[in-house]
Amino acid sequence: MTGTAPTTGSTRRATSAIDGAAQPEFKVNPHYRRPTVPVEHQYPKAIPPNISRQSPQIKLNDGEADAFRHLAHSIVSRTLAYECEYRQLGSPELSSSKWKLLKRHEQLSIYKKRGQKSDDDMDSNKNAKTPSVLCVGSLEGSLEDILYGTHSKNRDEMQATAGYLHNSHMDCAVLSVLESGTDDDPFRQLTLKWFITEMFGDARLVNHRDWFNIESIGISTDAWGRRYGYFLAKHVEHSGCPPMPADSDVVRGKMAMCCIYRQEPRSRVVDVYAKGSVDLGGGLPGFLTAFAPVAMMLSLEVYMQSAEGKRLTAVALEHAKGREGNPKNSETTESLIDMLAASTISSSISSSEDTTAKKPKSSTLPCSVCGKKAALSKLVRASHHKCGICKERVCSKCYVKRNLFGRKAPVSVVCCKVCILASKRQEIDPRQPTPILPPTS
């Protein structure tokens, strides 16, 4: 790649760290400063307001664009070669003498190679002690869902998706789109993205981190004609998105993650092979940074949940549109969104709301899924929950709580099993706009 981050000038503040010395983070001023990156990007002092804003764009010349394409292709190809070798060996349990098990959760296992620092492209910083980790295992779901869960094409979609995947998300921008989906591969996408996150939930103690990555996603076939999905997110450098000043409250982090996904025909399980590393920078002690790559790998499970959230949001918007067109129903799309945003439908509907003059018998309505009435409904006027998507009554055994996609943050709702099944039958095309609940105001 031709673009590089600018070097720090010779004049430094008296409070700046000595060159070459790793200093722990200490914040003199707890207030946010306006950073200078990305160029022309307005950085809010808090979580961004609920308005649609276009991301600033990095202008790449042909040489830079080709360099980024080559970088992404080479890393995915190399990771695919490792994955193919692992599969040809029968996906064996890794040797405990060579690999240290860091974490096992459900069907995912995360390892670090013993006694050897990795020298491949997945090291986030080859000069730092940030060896790459390996994640192998499987997840329930489909190949399309695990890609759909993290797919975003513009700032609004990235904002909603990142807010769903990470509690620490603050702001983001899609700085350049090099490749987009096609009829042969609708998931295909190559972008440059920037985002900023909170660290450990307390800005007074630890600086925030910002990240500038190249992201590649898509579905392809290997040399044997077998289908696989891939996802790559790796830090890059370009003069259009330099790190923030040394005296700012934001430190540039470096991450690298490349995942290869496989799904056998008629299977509901996705096999995972992923390598990655994280360098948080800022002179943080090792015990604070050691878990970062593990947490990054565990986020793969949330990708599946994110895809389900997008599907359910699409179903909710369809139901809201249908109710809006029904003259017998006084609810409009806006009223539904107001209820969603207030999270009022995520809890039980009180009996007082169901025993008004308009609906005197609503407290005795049976569950729309199993047909059972609420226990002791005649004595205490107890009622079932109301599905936040289809608005039908549902008992405690026939609903689950799920998160829908909102612009600022996910919205928790009660969801009946019928809507869950309906969402699984939804046809998805990642080239279409991501379903997001409209703003409440």
UniProtKB/TrEMBL annotation:
CDD domains from the xrefs?
FYVE_like_SF
Disordered: where is this region? 1-25
Q: Where is the composition biased (Polar residues)?
A: 1-14
Please, which domain of life does this record's source organism belong to?
Eukaryota
PANTHER family for this protein: FYVE-FINGER-CONTAINING RAB5 EFFECTOR PROTEIN RABENOSYN-5-RELATED, RABENOSYN-5
Q: What is the protein's given name?
A: FYVE-type domain-containing protein
Q: What is the lineage of its organism?
A: Eukaryota, Sar, Stramenopiles, Oomycota, Peronosporomycetes
